[in-house]
Backbone:
């Protein structure tokens, strides 16, 4: 069973703002080079344009390609190129959190869950499933030993 990530308007606005700043930093020199110089350096223009496409594409990929999949023995958390296999036997606690700026997080919403497990990169992973209650229900079916804090 797969759950998609919930997306907050605030989070989306933050990503769009960040991409706008990156566009300004990388594409303003392109505009200047094309329209305000006598002999534009086309190699520099191509490099800056490709750099913008790569950075913006990476940010959009890790923001919108987030899902949480229940397998037989583990929970698979994927966000862009970041992936985690969390064995159910290692999960100790699940609690709601709004602290999305600290820790290992694969989410796009402030309405999040923190999953504590053994051998975690930073002690836990913070996720934001769209259907939080259904997610917890399925997680408890797979691993009834987990302590859920409401």
Residues:
């Amino acid at each position: 069973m797969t759950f998609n990530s919930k997306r907050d308007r605030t989070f989306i606005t933050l990503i769009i703002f960040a991409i706008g700043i990156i566009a300004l930093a990388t594409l303003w020199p392109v505009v200047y080079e094309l329209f305000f110089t006598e002999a534009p350096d086309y190699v520099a223009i191509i490099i800056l344009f490709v750099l913008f496409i790569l950075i913006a594409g990476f940010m959009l990929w890790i923001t919108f390609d987030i899902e949480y999949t229940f397998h037989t023995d583990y929970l698979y958390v994927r966000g862009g190129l970041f992936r985690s296999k969390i064995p159910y036997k290692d999960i100790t606690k699940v609690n709601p959190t709004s602290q999305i700026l600290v820790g290992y997080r694969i989410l796009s919403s402030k309405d999040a869950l923190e999953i504590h497990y053994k051998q975690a990169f930073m002690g836990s992973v913070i996720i934001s499933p769209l259907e939080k209650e259904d997610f917890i229900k399925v997680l408890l079916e797979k691993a009834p030993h987990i302590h859920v804090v409401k």
